[in-house]
């Protein structure tokens, strides 16, 4: 990660590359040389350049710094090339059974697959979507770490070798996470394997607590002592016996993301989203720095994190201005980063005469650094819509509250509270009541935050995790840090939560990569069960059972309402037909027909649907999963159908009326 960088003179056009040497030699002269720009205007940008703007609030108590990458690459590509090193736990517990989560009224089905079997399938999914422009490395760790495969281009020959290496992984003994991390970092450092034009990432998956050769001074101090890491570090925790606080801290110091995988049913969607975000990366090592007068203070509002930096004073500059640096990590095409900062002014200071300079520095996966700079007077309030301002304020308030549930220890490791006090619940209730998003209940983004906090099940997971002590102890302590990461980094990390699902919706590349990975996970040949002797299901293994985000299907006789008002069976629908949605008619782009045998379905009234396809029974006002409201599960043999409608920014044009 780029942890330290100096402030250079602002550009007034597109951002040229800045060499690392030039960056170090640059001075702090920008405070006096940058010209003032009108409110809400941005520097001229090319089609492939990031936009940077500062938005002071009319309340004069805060501002929003907005970083907006381009929607898509200037040239059409399947995905952004990646260097991915998988660091996989092969301790003994990874050989435990990984049954499919049960649907209502059903017994858990055990195909004989272990946790490691599913991880290997996820690794093959990543491999399937790679080509010769990508590289893959593999590290395994138990009591010792082992380099299974160095970073290699994924041409046809090497992909065959990589698949053999993946299949050869076997569970062994203890959990030496530290050595696994070190070996993953070494793969990038050996042979100058950095700045290759590919997105560098280390993906660490474990199902337990490290119990062998942990660094005495702590993971964070050791990693921080390495200065600049050659790749972002992303951590994944499977199951409930985790040190999630540690995994979150490692991801923070590594500029990556932490994701929680509660059970086998979520392993597919978590890996799919993680890799799709990497394949849609616009820039890496992004850092935002704000320079402002000494008479005011700017404060971050999303709570404590390992990579949070203190405000500095610039003693060699006129009037000794202050400076705040914020590490942003990777930026994705089509997804903005919006940082709400609180303004505190010294008593008697005149805020209207103050300006803030924002400078963004980032890498496009090469040795060159790019810089974007803008200045904004605090006397010019933003013209952002009130709903957008409310959304970012609400998101920051939720992050701040969640951060208080997992405070930082002195060694830099997050540690969840042992229990949730009545005072914390009172604070939660006040947060829900006073959330700025409550003023815009019909705005999709604001609504999603309200649903994360207190929506009807299966939404409202924050309240569910905190108000039930059993839930909090079992899964809340792991889930809440993962959700916090999604909201602070503004990334979509699974199909499940309403809030994170709002991220990436304006990124065609992310959506394409996610769909391709999703299909690969479901359609690749199922792994050979390691625990076949204890299997309770002897039939064909359907990998979609371990990736429940894709189960969006109806039986052949399901009636669909056409734009004319007439109802016809879904099996008769063809491309180009106009169907009714809550927001009016939309045309069908494609129909997917899938033969199934004894598929588990849910009966909701007269409707028979897959368990995790959201349905609404009140014209789109609220949504539920059939698995949570079904009268009973049923077995279905025949064809199930999925309908893809023409794209639209209004989410209420996605569902068809039945």
UniProtKB/TrEMBL annotation:
Renumbered residue ranges of the record's region Disordered: 1-48
Compositionally biased region (Polar residues): 20-38
InterPro entries, alphabetized: CLCR, Hint_dom_sf, Vint_dom, Vwaint_dom, VWF_A, vWFA_dom_sf
Compositionally biased region (Low complexity): 8-19
Domain VWFA: 83-275
Protein name, entry field: Hypotheticall protein
UniProt organism field: Colletotrichum siamense
Upper taxonomic lineage: Eukaryota, Fungi, Dikarya, Ascomycota, Pezizomycotina
